[in-house]
Write a structure and sequence with these properties.
CATH class of the largest domain: Alpha Beta
Strand content: 5-15%
Number of helices: 12
Shape: globular
Helix content: 40-55%
Number of strands: 8
Radius of gyration: 22 Å
Distance between the termini: 39 Å
Oligomer: single chain
CATH superfamily of the largest domain: Spore Coat Polysaccharide Biosynthesis Protein SpsA, Chain A
CATH architecture of the largest domain: Alpha-Beta Complex
């Protein structure tokens, strides 16, 4: 029978979906929860600062609604802290976990089942992540993000743990959340704070992951996808990526020596490698393109060794690019085969990274913007 899942030990699982003006997508998000092979015990949508019909659509889809009173100055993290505090007596009554997911996301049907199993069977699991991929897009910018996410998902699949618990959908241990809150109040193991999520972080999911790891818990995934929206205009993409990049740098700086050496090595090398890769990749691709043009112009119609080598290298590169997005459909395959759109996209990301680094270093234009 659908929704029936038997296990010797089970968790009390609450779904929590913070939402800001998500009337158009909240119904699909809630419906994807009702499609789970292991149904949660309760589903809550937490509208905050909302001016549309998010609450109405959430209730129509079958969710309970917790409306945060007044104006929420602390955005998503503030809404989650308020809702978790409100539900804490219920969560304390038994071994519990909270599935936190975005309002523009759908998760594959077996996520809760597999995540619960992972949390019960393995020791010291702080949170279990989904692997996010982009929703099918109709414009070039969205398709490029869809391709980017698909390739990143392939890399994550090869690892036992994630770099960051996905904000799109992750099951988080309630006991670990309480331990995090206690550690924030003590301000010894973790940076000082007052609640479960850090309301001052621009990327609360990244920060929560660091907190979980510092306290000695793991953040595995279960190879299940969450499908989320992509940014289909330049301005939204710019603000999204800038917030991601600034937030990651802020969190690493804030934690400093509170992170054990192995964590400092991983996360700083990751950031440095990210900047180096983005700086080098467009240069290499442009240089290769210019080289191809020079070979063609210099040898005319004669198929010399230089041209043959260039053609073979280009074909191999395009083969890899197409193969790594093959499961995303014909649009992604065609864009990958076109070669140049991905070069331009990489340059745009490099510009966004540079803007984020400049803001981080100067302290200017650091405001959180919804995307």
């Amino acid at each position: 029978m659908k929704g029936l899942f038997l296990m010797e030990e089970t968790l009390y699982i609450v779904v929590m979906i913070p939402a800001w003006n998500e009337a158009g997508s909240i119904g699909e998000a809630v419906s994807s929860i009702y499609e789970q092979t292991r149904l949660p015990d309760r589903i809550f949508v937490v509208p905050n600062n909302t001016t549309d019909l998010t609450s109405v659509e959430a209730m129509a889809a079958g969710a309970e609604v917790l409306v945060m009173p007044g104006k929420n100055e602390k955005k998503k993290a503030g809404a989650l802290n308020w809702a978790l505090e409100k539900l804490s007596p219920t969560l304390d009554a038994q071994r519990s976990a909270v599935l936190v997911m975005d309002a523009d996301t759908m998760i594959e049907p077996d996520f809760i089942e597999k995540a619960e199993k992972k949390m019960i069977e393995e020791a010291r699991v702080g949170g279990v992540s989904s692997i996010f991929v982009g929703r099918n897009s109709t414009n070039l910018l969205g398709i490029l993000q869809q391709m980017e996410f698909a390739r990143f998902a392939r890399l994550v699949h090869k690892r036992a743990e994630v770099y960051v618990l996905s904000g799109t959908a992750s099951l988080i241990s309630w006991d670990v959340l309480k331990e995090i809150k206690g550690a924030r109040l003590e301000a010894k193991l973790l940076p000082e704070g007052e609640s479960y999520y850090d309301v001052d972080s621009m990327t609360e999911d990244n920060e929560l992951t660091l907190a979980i790891l510092v306290l000695g818990f793991s953040v595995p995934h279960v190879s299940v996808k969450s499908i989320t929206d992509v940014m289909e205009d330049y301005n939204s993409l710019y603000h999204q990526r800038k917030r991601w990049y600034i937030g990651a740098l802020q969190n690493i700086k804030e934690y400093g020596r509170k992170m054990p050496p192995w964590m400092r090595m991983i996360y700083w090398v990751q950031q440095i490698g990210l900047y180096m890769a983005l700086a080098i990749t467009p240069i290499v691709l442009f240089a290769f393109t210019i080289y191809l043009i020079q070979v063609v112009l210099s040898e005319g119609a004669v198929l010399g060794w230089s041209r043959l080598t260039s053609i073979v290298l280009l074909v191999l590169y395009l083969f890899v690019q197409v193969a790594t997005v093959w499961d995303q459909g014909w649009k992604c395959r065609l864009v990958a085969l076109s070669y140049f759109p991905e070069i331009v996209y990489a340059i745009f990301l490099l510009i966004f990274y540079a803007a984020a680094l400049w803001s981080f270093l100067t302290g200017k234009d650091m405001k959180w913007k919804h995307t």
